[in-house]
Write a structure and sequence with these properties.
132 residues
Length: 132
């Protein structure tokens, strides 16, 4: 009887640990830093670029490239194809709008088949570039 009780306690403890690890991995953890940062925008831009690349890998016949126009419908195929859960918002500009050149109030720049962010000053933002 003692062995089965120890086994039961050990199993319950193992399940609790595994459950905690799964919850930590699956459930996104959001931190409220108070003010959006360039690091937040860099992370979002990285995600958007990665999902566009994944879409292009899956759909070489209809890629996001220099022929795709910026504008209100830009995100539609990525959302319908489940590459994005929703329209990404630039945290520094509080905008989802995709334009072809940076300006205040717009969120993203789509130029020559590449995605960029717009920083808090309305300038092109590309953390992968040394010149900004």
């Amino acid at each position: 009887m003692r062995t089965s009780r120890n086994t039961l306690i050990g199993s319950a403890l193992l399940l609790a640990v595994v459950g905690g690890l799964v919850a930590a991995i699956i459930v996104p953890q959001f931190t409220d830093t108070g003010t959006p940062s360039r690091e937040d925008l860099a992370s979002d831009l990285h995600t958007v670029r990665r999902q566009i690349a994944l879409h292009n890998f899956h759909h070489p016949e209809a890629p996001y490239d220099e022929k795709i126009r910026s504008g209100p419908g830009f995100w539609d195929r990525l959302i319908k194809g489940r590459y994005l859960r929703g329209t990404p918002t630039n945290v520094l500009q509080q905008s989802t709008l995709v334009v072809d050149s940076p300006r205040m109030g717009a969120g993203w720049v789509w130029r020559n088949g590449h995605m960029y962010g717009i920083d808090e000053h309305g300038r092109l933002f590309d953390p992968a570039s040394t010149a900004q």
